Amino acid sequence: MLAEPPSPDIEPPEFLAAVGDIFACFDRQDSGNVSFGVAGGRDRYFVKTAGPSSSAGLPPRHGDRVALLDNAERLARSVSHSVLTVFEGSLPSAWGPMLVYRWADGEHLHAQRECRDDPDTAWQRFLALPRAHRLEAVHRIVDLHVALSERGWVTGDFYDGCLIYDFATGVLRVFDLDSYRLGPYPNTMGRMFGSTRFMAPEEFEKGRTIDERTTVFAMGRTIGIFLGDIAALKQVTDIACADDPCARYATVAKLAVAFRGSATAP
Known about the structure:
Layout: H1 12-19, E1 21-26, E2 34-40, E3 43-49, H2 62-78, E4 87-91, E5 98-102, E6 107-108, H3 122-127, H4 131-150, E7 153-154, E8 163-166, E9 171-174, E10 181-182, E11 185-186, E12 209-210, H5 212-227, H6 234-240, H7 252-263
Antiparallel strand pairs: 1-2, 2-3, 3-5, 4-5, 6-8, 7-10, 8-9, 11-12
Helix pairs in contact: 4-5, 4-7, 5-6
């Protein structure tokens, strides 16, 4: 892991440039977060920060972004899974915590709406992969959420933007789960953060309960979006994505069992 900074008052760009080679900077995120790709010796890292406090006017506010990073660290320390980007630890800085992850090779699967039909995007190239490759990737995503649910974590702002796929090796990684929360909890926002393609009805209505059945819905949408060409999975996704949470699978584990059974059906 990167060395501890000499002072918690040092700004991340200054510190990271001193200890390694900054080969990437992600500073145009809607969240206001600023992240870096850093090479240190033989290793490469993804370092995520809340960005400078001077950007406090962006939603969410700087203090809220710091809180989300603290939450992401709690999740990373509570759940270990091979599909998650590997968490190396956190370091203090003038911008708040710097979360350090092992760099994941691959391409970000999210494509902006206006580009979603472009065959050259990673999104369309992934959808064009053989079924077996897509099935393996989705199985891993669902299996991760079984593990998260067993620890009490409920989905928040999960979408294709949380996925990195290495087309050369077939390895999928999941990252950016900062908005996951220990549940159940009430929806205090109304329209919550996230992509409408993956969000359950209760994520749009203030006062509704957000719980494991919300995660079931997100996983059902994931199965449907990535594997919609497999007719045998339609009943599974219909149940998982029912408008009424009580009509869905009660747990992600039960969804996973139904998914595996239908995916292997002749």
